[in-house]
Amino acid sequence: CFTQGGAGVGGKHKMAAAAAGGEMQLLRPFCCEHGLLSRPDGSACFTQGDTTVLAAVYGPAEVKVSKEIFDKATLDVLLKPKVGLPSVAEKSKEQMIRNTCEATVLTALHPRSSITVVLQVIHDSGSLLSCCLNAACMALMDAGLPMKSVFCGITCMIDSDRNILLDPTTTMEKDAAAVLTFSIDSVEKELLTLSTKGSYSVEELQQCVAICQKAAEKIFQFYRDLVGRRYSKLNE
Fold it and tell me: pTM score, two decimals?
């Protein structure tokens, strides 16, 4: 499992955001392993801190006639909780992940086919949606699907003192005034999708965007290091 230590530009938990004059909190260490599953076309297990998600990608494959789209592939996302059946919360996360994948995967190259991304939550210790996004991206890369860019997920929170903190744990999220998750593309560092919970000002939103875009550079560097190390081993 390829591991990256905590990444950021200074300070640990409870630090105010750089935009507020402090230093940005570290991201928790992350780890990823490709190709754990043999039956899917691509798979990856992504861990952020103690949050772990296993992703599998199937396709392009045959699609049901009722779901067939004549000029592009049909992309479905299934998110399975650690226990029990999917709830409204999982369906909401599925929608954001699907929108992000559709914005980056070149589905027009595989018309009248099906691409399915299945995500299984192994453990949730906070920032689950961003971990799901990162796992999905890694699995899509492992499947070799054509993409206009890769993407990553970043979660931040605004605490009761209006400080902005990155990659919150479950305990931190419970006490947060707002929790925001962004999906960001690797080319222009533009926002692809956004999920929010709680109240915040326009200025705070802009600060969160700037902080998460900067943190995304660390995750994209992790992607590059991971892929580079993987294929350098294949060439040995």
Answer: 0.86
